[in-house]
User: Which sequence fits this backbone?
């Protein structure tokens, strides 16, 4: 891991947030989305743990532990890629810089979408725990969904911004069309999950 990056799973929270506030970009918004996904998974795991009498909840608790770990690793990886991305942008103008920016931007989009896939996988756990979860920790379930919604929205913003940047640095012979098409399909899937998350929150607000 580059020395300019820090692992959110191994760093005191205050230190990680302090680093986030600096003009470094590593960690940045993508890593923050990964951490918010980890927070959502953690809170959902709490709800599952408080519903230990139910077999499905116990199974969900294990899945959520795994997903929480995936989210934190994705946050760390996004910080690594952000450092590489910043280094590419800091290069002197020229062909080498253009190539480095393209490669780093493709990696940045992929990293954001990796976080998005982990976040969207939490929706099945939300649906389950909304049905069977211990009602005494329903507020924690709602906070989890709000964190998840923020992660999904943030992932979309990050990936879209990086795709826009990539478009400005593409060349006719870069062979990136298939990859960009895959990114766009992933963003459509992400939009559907964001809409589902918004529906859940809207339903709670109308109660």
Assistant:
């Amino acid at each position: 891991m580059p020395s300019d990056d820090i692992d959110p799973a191994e760093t005191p929270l205050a230190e990680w947030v302090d680093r986030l506030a600096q003009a470094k970009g590593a960690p940045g918004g993508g890593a923050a989305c990964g951490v918010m996904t980890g927070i959502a998974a953690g809170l959902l795991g709490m709800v599952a743990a408080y519903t230990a009498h139910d077999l499905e909840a116990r199974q969900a608790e294990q899945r959520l532990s795994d997903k929480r770990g995936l989210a934190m690793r994705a946050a760390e990886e996004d910080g690594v890629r952000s450092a590489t991305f910043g280094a590419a942008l800091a290069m002197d103008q020229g062909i080498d810089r253009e190539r480095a920016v393209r490669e780093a931007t493709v990696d940045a989009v992929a990293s954001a979408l990796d976080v998005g896939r982990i976040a969207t996988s939490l929706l099945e756990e939300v649906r389950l725990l909304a049905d069977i979860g211990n009602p005494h920790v329903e507020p924690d379930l709602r906070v989890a969904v709000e964190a998840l919604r923020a992660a999904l929205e943030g992932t979309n913003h990050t990936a879209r911004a990086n795709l826009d940047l990539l478009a400005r640095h593409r060349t006719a012979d870069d062979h990136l069309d298939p990859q960009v098409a895959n990114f766009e399909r992933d963003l459509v899937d992400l939009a559907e999950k964001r809409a589902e998350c918004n529906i859940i929150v809207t339903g709670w607000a109308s109660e």
